[in-house]
Write a structure and sequence with these properties.
alpha+beta; single chain; 712 residues
């Protein structure tokens, strides 16, 4: 163990301070000669904020010193909060008044001295503190708008960048030689060369130029850049994909399913079709066939394609675009299960009894020929209108036997899902309609029909089946896990649901099961409160992630689960496919199983990180398009629902899913925030989650992607 770690570990054992020479004797021994290394280690630990010196010159671990090490979160109004390292759920963030920030910026790792509270205000009952040291800066770059100030006198022009993120409440000075061909008014990325302080202004240099700061394209590109979303593939990767796309498809000893009734069902705009389905009736129940594009046949281990897919981790979907994980020659070409052409697949055959319980799973390398390119909206219409549907002729060869059998099995699986307690959390998704200039012209809610839910249940079943198939063989797998929620967060959810008038007695158990939460959600749905409650519940649950360790999926109420069905657009699915194929060929045994377990672990960690990155980019792009759309409605009024209440106001979601803030400063009178009931009240009027209000659109800022509203 390194000397720094030995010192840190010893000091963190108990609340005791030591003179440096006393600590040296304990750690190194009196007979050693490690003085230089020891004092360098102390300096390193002090620099990192792990230890502090008392007024008497003694060394003590920061956690016992009365000081707190944590992450500073800035406010646009100058004050901030510090989240302590390893904060327990019950602990509160530390409020830092604007005069006590020590010029820390958002994301900095800082050391805080707790101070007596001068006032509480709208910050609630947080501890109050003073930043005494900035340990490290997390933000290395920022995006903003380049501006020019000439001053009143004939002085040299001053170039500066105003950050997009209002939490960075400082400007960044730019030397002329660091402009990088940017024009005044451009949105740019800036590398921070010197951080702001009492003595000096922040200084930086421009490293990327996106275009005019108020344009949709510039903001779009800035979002992708800030989340490190790669839009272009390396030349060798594209060449490899093009070459593979021209390869011949032959049975090659695979299970030949080309004469079977197998087909895809996807959205109308989908181009990367990676799953097809089939169903057969048996004496005991059903065999569900889920046939997935055999991407691992083309994207082989350690190839340039594989390395690029690993780095990307997932495809990223925006309004009318996709940044694919794989080049289009593969994702939209030879890997996509297009109708009427032969394609390589991995087929999972899940045997189910008449109650939908899995009795057996078989996985085969196969070749299929999809019989029809199914579209959700078309099949929903056929199911509803039958022969009266305008799409009936397209699907008539599956409407007599195959489709009714699939619907029969779907209803069994759906009933089974409800019985085991899988959480049915309804979230509102939006579809952004754009014109030929890529400008948003409409925003509509996405309504899920029966075929969307059918495919969802079939994919869940296949994913569970494959996870079991690998687990039964003690083989590695990239599992999809969802840990049990934190008891304190469930306690807060319980209180909120109870205040809505819901029966929460089912939550008062020693070990929480998703069945209990489902019962509360069901009652909320009956009372029209499910939209609000679902949002609160989502905040109370852990985030699902990937892991090489087999753990249950709480939200689905499934013991073993993985992602197998989307290898064109998700790397964890591709990794699981690769392991499956090694198992099928007998290429994994006790001698090399550790290698593939390590591969599954690496893929799981990287995939979880890339998933979060993609989700943030997708959210920011969606907010950008919504902001551009809402520019057309400034001064107009809408009805909406309060979806979030904070100490600084409440957010209202309109029927088109666009959201805006009604700031507390725009309300009449003094309002108190009650974090237990998520409400703002002045003793007469009260604003709570789920309330319908009428608002006027006051302002829209596409740079910050924020919409300001006020009550009508």
């Amino acid at each position: 163990m390194e000397l720094t770690e030995r010192i840190k570990e010893y000091l963190n054992q108990e609340d005791t301070s030591y003179k440096p020479y006393e600590l040296y004797s304990i750690i190194c021994g009196d007979e050693t000669n490690e003085y230089d290394a020891f004092y360098k280690a102390l300096a390193k630990l002090e620099e990192a904020g792990e230890i502090v010196y008392t007024k008497k010159g003694k060394v003590i671990a920061t956690r016992f010193s009365g000081f707190v090490r944590g992450t500073f979160r800035a406010s646009a109004r100058g004050f901030g909060f510090v989240t302590p390292d390893g904060k327990a759920v019950k602990e509160r963030d530390i409020f830092i008044p604007r005069d006590n920030t020590f010029d820390a910026i958002d994301g900095d790792i800082v050391l805080v001295n707790l101070t007596p509270q001068k006032y509480r205000g709208s910050q609630g009952q947080s501890d109050e503190g003073k930043v005494i040291k900035i340990i490290s800066h997390t933000a290395k770059t920022l995006t903003g708008t380049l501006l020019l100030s000439r001053g009143k006198k004939k002085t040299r022009p001053v170039f500066y960048v105003v950050p997009d993120n209002k939490k960075f409440n400082f400007d960044v000075l730019i030397n002329r030689e660091d402009l990088s061909d940017a024009d005044i008014g451009d949105k740019v990325e800036v590398e921070i060369l010197r951080y702001p302080s009492v003595k000096y202004a922040c200084r930086g240099k421009i490293t990327a130029v996106f275009g005019e700061s108020d344009s949709l394209l510039a903001n779009y590109n800035a979002v992708l850049h800030s989340h490190n979303i790669k839009t272009l593939f390396p030349k060798d990767v594209l060449e490899s994909a093009d070459k593979l796309s021209e390869s011949e498809i032959l049975p090659d000893g695979r299970l030949d399913l080309r004469d079977k009734t197998i087909f895809t069902i996807d959205g109308k705009d989908a181009k990367d079709l990676d799953d097809a389905i089939s169903v057969e009736r048996t004496d005991d129940g059903y065999i569900l066939g889920v046939h997935i594009a055999d991407v691992s046949h083309y994207v082989t281990e350690d190839s340039a394609l594989d390395e690029e897919a690993f780095v990307r981790g997932t495809s990223v979907y925006f309004a009318d675009k996709v940044v694919p994980m794989l080049p289009k020659a593969l994702s939209n070409g030879i890997c996509s299960l297009n109708a009427g052409v032969d394609r390589y697949t991995l087929s999972a055959f899940v045997s189910l009894d008449k109650n939908g319980e899995i009795t057996d799973v078989d996985v085969k390398e196969s070749i299929i020929n999809s019989k029809v390119r199914g579209v959700y909206s078309e099949l929903n219409d056929v199911i509803e209108k039958e022969k009266q549907s305008e799409y009936y002729d397209k699907y008539k060869h599956i409407t007599s036997d195959t489709l009714p059998l699939m619907l029969e099995l779907y209803r069994i699986l759906d009933k089974k899902s409800a019985k085991r307690g899988a959480l049915d959390i309804e979230t509102t998704e939006a579809k952004i309609i754009v014109n030929e200039y890529n400008e948003p012209t409409d925003i509509i809610k996405i309504e899920r029909g029966i075929t969307e839910m059918l495919i969802e249940q079939f994919m869940l079943c296949a994913n569970e089946g494959v996870a079991n198939w690998l687990s039964w063989r003690d083989m590695p797998c990239v599992y999809r896990i969802h840990e049990n929620p934190d008891p304190e967060k469930i306690k807060a959810f319980d209180m909120f649901a109870y205040n809505l008038g819901l029966n929460t007695s089912v939550l008062h158990t020693k070990t929480l099961h998703p069945t209990a939460l489902r019962k509360v959600l069901t009652e909320a749905k009956e009372k029209g409160l499910d939209g609000v409650l679902s949002k609160i519940l989502l905040r109370s649950l852990m985030k699902a992630r990937y892991s090489s360790g087999c753990q249950a999926h709480f939200g689905l109420a499934i013991d073993k689960y993985c992602h197998f069905t989307s290898p064109i657009r998700r790397y964890p699915d591709l990794a699981t496919h690769r392991i499956i194929k090694k198992v099928l060929k007998g290429e994994i045994d006790s001698r090399n199983v550790g290698r593939y377990t390590a591969f599954a672990t690496k893929a799981a960690i990287n995939s979880s990180e890339n998933e979060i990155k993609a989700q943030m980019a997708e959210r920011d792009i969606e907010d950008l398009y919504k902001s551009v759309y809402m520019l057309n409605f400034i001064g107009q009024t809408f009805k909406g629902i309060i979806t979030s209440v904070t100490s600084f106001g409440f957010f209202v979601e309109l029927d088109n899913t666009c959201e805006g803030l009604v700031p507390i400063s725009s309300l009449n009178g003094y309002y108190d925030f009650d974090e237990r009931s998520y409400s703002l009240s002045n003793g007469v009027d009260k604003f709570t989650l789920g309330m319908e209000v009428e608002v006027l659109i006051e302002n829209v800022d596409i740079i910050t992607r924020k919409t300001d509203m006020r009550l009508v």
